[in-house]
Amino acid sequence: MIFGYARVSTAAQDLTAQRAQLAAVRCEKVFCEKITGTHADRPQLRKLLAALQPGDVVVTTAVDRISRDTTDLLVIARQIKDSGAGLRSLAEPFLDTTSDFAEIVLAILGVAAKLERRRILERTAHGREAARAQGVKFGRKPKLTLHQQREAAARVAAGEPQRVVARSYNVSQATISRLDAAVKS
Protein backbone atom coordinates (compact mmCIF):
# COMPACT_ATOMS: atom_id res chain seq x y z
CA MET A 1 0.00 0.00 0.00
CA ILE A 2 1.19 3.53 -0.71
CA PHE A 3 0.64 5.87 2.21
CA GLY A 4 1.00 9.63 2.09
CA TYR A 5 1.95 11.91 4.93
CA ALA A 6 1.16 15.62 4.85
CA ARG A 7 1.82 18.12 7.59
CA VAL A 8 1.60 21.86 8.08
CA SER A 9 2.91 23.69 11.12
CA THR A 10 -0.21 25.58 12.17
CA ALA A 11 -3.96 25.17 11.97
CA ALA A 12 -4.12 28.32 9.82
CA GLN A 13 -2.06 26.70 7.05
CA ASP A 14 -3.61 24.63 4.25
CA LEU A 15 -2.89 21.01 3.30
CA THR A 16 -4.52 21.20 -0.16
CA ALA A 17 -1.30 21.46 -2.20
CA GLN A 18 0.36 18.57 -0.34
CA ARG A 19 -2.75 16.39 -0.69
CA ALA A 20 -2.86 17.09 -4.44
CA GLN A 21 0.81 16.12 -4.86
CA LEU A 22 0.28 12.91 -2.90
CA ALA A 23 -2.86 12.06 -4.90
CA ALA A 24 -0.87 12.58 -8.12
CA VAL A 25 1.53 9.79 -7.12
CA ARG A 26 -1.42 7.52 -6.27
CA CYS A 27 -1.25 7.44 -2.50
CA GLU A 28 -4.04 5.15 -1.34
CA LYS A 29 -4.35 6.66 2.14
CA VAL A 30 -3.06 10.03 3.28
CA PHE A 31 -2.41 10.90 6.92
CA CYS A 32 -2.62 14.65 7.56
CA GLU A 33 -1.92 16.81 10.55
CA LYS A 34 -1.58 20.42 11.53
CA ILE A 35 1.18 20.43 14.11
CA THR A 36 4.74 21.71 14.24
CA GLY A 37 7.47 19.41 12.91
CA THR A 38 9.57 19.97 16.00
CA HIS A 39 6.82 18.36 18.10
CA ALA A 40 7.81 14.72 18.70
CA ASP A 41 4.25 13.61 19.49
CA ARG A 42 2.34 13.62 16.20
CA PRO A 43 -0.76 11.39 16.44
CA GLN A 44 -1.29 10.92 12.69
CA LEU A 45 2.36 10.01 12.13
CA ARG A 46 2.07 7.49 14.98
CA LYS A 47 -1.02 5.96 13.31
CA LEU A 48 0.79 5.81 9.98
CA LEU A 49 3.81 4.06 11.49
CA ALA A 50 1.54 1.58 13.29
CA ALA A 51 -0.31 0.75 10.04
CA LEU A 52 2.82 -0.11 8.03
CA GLN A 53 3.27 -3.62 6.63
CA PRO A 54 6.20 -5.09 4.69
CA GLY A 55 6.21 -3.74 1.15
CA ASP A 56 4.31 -0.54 1.99
CA VAL A 57 5.71 2.85 0.99
CA VAL A 58 5.40 6.17 2.82
CA VAL A 59 5.44 9.16 0.48
CA THR A 60 5.85 12.74 1.63
CA THR A 61 6.07 15.95 -0.37
CA ALA A 62 9.28 16.99 1.40
CA VAL A 63 11.43 15.41 4.08
CA ASP A 64 10.78 18.29 6.48
CA ARG A 65 7.12 17.27 6.51
CA ILE A 66 8.19 14.11 8.39
CA SER A 67 10.50 16.01 10.75
CA ARG A 68 12.67 19.11 10.89
CA ASP A 69 15.01 17.42 13.34
CA THR A 70 17.57 15.15 11.68
CA THR A 71 17.81 12.81 14.66
CA ASP A 72 14.03 12.45 14.79
CA LEU A 73 13.95 11.91 11.02
CA LEU A 74 16.52 9.14 11.31
CA VAL A 75 14.51 7.42 14.06
CA ILE A 76 11.33 7.60 11.95
CA ALA A 77 13.14 6.38 8.81
CA ARG A 78 14.50 3.43 10.83
CA GLN A 79 11.00 2.63 12.13
CA ILE A 80 9.68 2.63 8.57
CA LYS A 81 12.56 0.43 7.38
CA ASP A 82 12.22 -1.94 10.36
CA SER A 83 8.55 -2.46 9.51
CA GLY A 84 9.60 -3.58 6.02
CA ALA A 85 8.30 -0.43 4.36
CA GLY A 86 10.04 2.29 2.39
CA LEU A 87 10.16 6.08 2.51
CA ARG A 88 10.10 8.44 -0.48
CA SER A 89 10.25 12.23 -0.62
CA LEU A 90 8.90 13.96 -3.73
CA ALA A 91 11.07 17.06 -3.23
CA GLU A 92 14.24 15.08 -2.45
CA PRO A 93 14.39 12.13 -4.87
CA PHE A 94 17.65 10.97 -3.29
CA LEU A 95 15.62 10.17 -0.16
CA ASP A 96 14.13 6.92 -1.38
CA THR A 97 14.74 4.04 0.98
CA THR A 98 13.06 1.65 -1.48
CA SER A 99 16.03 1.95 -3.85
CA ASP A 100 19.33 0.09 -3.83
CA PHE A 101 20.86 3.09 -2.11
CA ALA A 102 18.61 2.84 0.96
CA GLU A 103 21.42 1.91 3.34
CA ILE A 104 23.58 4.75 2.04
CA VAL A 105 20.74 7.23 2.51
CA LEU A 106 20.14 6.07 6.08
CA ALA A 107 23.88 6.13 6.82
CA ILE A 108 24.09 9.72 5.56
CA LEU A 109 21.07 10.66 7.66
CA GLY A 110 22.77 9.03 10.65
CA VAL A 111 25.95 11.04 10.13
CA ALA A 112 23.90 14.22 9.68
CA ALA A 113 22.06 13.45 12.93
CA LYS A 114 25.35 12.99 14.80
CA LEU A 115 26.69 16.26 13.42
CA GLU A 116 23.48 18.07 14.35
CA ARG A 117 23.59 16.61 17.86
CA ARG A 118 27.22 17.71 18.24
CA ARG A 119 26.34 21.25 17.08
CA ILE A 120 23.45 21.39 19.55
CA LEU A 121 25.75 20.30 22.39
CA GLU A 122 28.36 22.89 21.38
CA ARG A 123 25.77 25.67 21.19
CA THR A 124 24.39 24.63 24.58
CA ALA A 125 27.88 24.63 26.12
CA HIS A 126 28.65 28.06 24.64
CA GLY A 127 25.33 29.37 25.92
CA ARG A 128 26.07 28.06 29.41
CA GLU A 129 29.55 29.63 29.35
CA ALA A 130 28.13 32.97 28.22
CA ALA A 131 25.49 32.84 30.94
CA ARG A 132 28.10 32.02 33.60
CA ALA A 133 30.24 34.92 32.37
CA GLN A 134 27.23 37.17 32.97
CA GLY A 135 26.84 35.86 36.50
CA VAL A 136 23.98 33.41 35.96
CA LYS A 137 24.07 30.59 38.50
CA PHE A 138 22.87 27.10 37.62
CA GLY A 139 21.33 24.46 39.82
CA ARG A 140 19.13 24.61 42.85
CA LYS A 141 19.36 27.59 45.17
CA PRO A 142 21.12 26.91 48.46
CA LYS A 143 18.81 26.17 51.38
CA LEU A 144 20.73 28.62 53.55
CA THR A 145 22.02 32.08 52.67
CA LEU A 146 25.75 32.70 52.97
CA HIS A 147 25.12 34.54 56.25
CA GLN A 148 23.06 31.60 57.59
CA GLN A 149 25.76 29.12 56.50
CA ARG A 150 28.45 31.05 58.40
CA GLU A 151 26.20 31.39 61.43
CA ALA A 152 25.28 27.66 61.42
CA ALA A 153 28.92 26.62 60.98
CA ALA A 154 29.92 28.82 63.92
CA ARG A 155 27.18 27.32 66.11
CA VAL A 156 28.27 23.75 65.26
CA ALA A 157 31.93 24.69 65.85
CA ALA A 158 30.91 26.07 69.26
CA GLY A 159 29.53 22.62 70.15
CA GLU A 160 25.81 23.01 69.50
CA PRO A 161 24.31 19.71 68.20
CA GLN A 162 23.75 19.57 64.43
CA ARG A 163 20.11 18.51 64.80
CA VAL A 164 19.34 21.56 66.97
CA VAL A 165 21.03 23.89 64.47
CA ALA A 166 19.20 22.16 61.60
CA ARG A 167 15.83 22.52 63.32
CA SER A 168 16.40 26.25 63.92
CA TYR A 169 16.92 26.82 60.17
CA ASN A 170 14.21 24.38 59.13
CA VAL A 171 16.63 22.19 57.16
CA SER A 172 17.69 18.58 57.52
CA GLN A 173 20.55 17.49 59.73
CA ALA A 174 22.26 16.22 56.55
CA THR A 175 22.37 19.80 55.24
CA ILE A 176 24.15 20.97 58.39
CA SER A 177 26.42 17.91 58.32
CA ARG A 178 27.46 18.67 54.71
CA LEU A 179 28.03 22.31 55.64
CA ASP A 180 30.18 21.27 58.61
CA ALA A 181 32.20 18.86 56.45
CA ALA A 182 32.77 21.57 53.83
CA VAL A 183 33.97 24.02 56.48
CA LYS A 184 36.39 21.45 57.95
CA SER A 185 37.90 20.53 54.57
Automatic annotation (TrEMBL):
**Pfam families, from UniProt?**
HTH_7, Resolvase
Enumerate the UniProt keywords alphabetically. Answer: DNA integration, DNA recombination, DNA-binding, Plasmid
**Coiled coil ranges:** none
- Record GO terms (molecular function): DNA binding; DNA strand exchange activity
Is DNA-binding among the key words of this record?
yes
InterPro entries per the UniProt record, alphabetical: Homeodomain-like_sf, Recombinase_CS, Resolv_N, Resolvase-like_N_sf, Resolvase_HTH_dom, SSR_resolvase
Q: Which PROSITE patterns match?
A: RECOMBINASES_1, RECOMBINASES_2, RECOMBINASES_3
Instruction: Name the domain of life.
Output: Bacteria
GO terms, biological process: DNA integration
| Protein family | Belongs to the site-specific recombinase resolvase family.
Name recorded for this polypeptide: Putative recombinase
Species for this entry: Acidiphilium multivorum (strain DSM 11245 / JCM 8867 / NBRC 100883 / AIU 301)
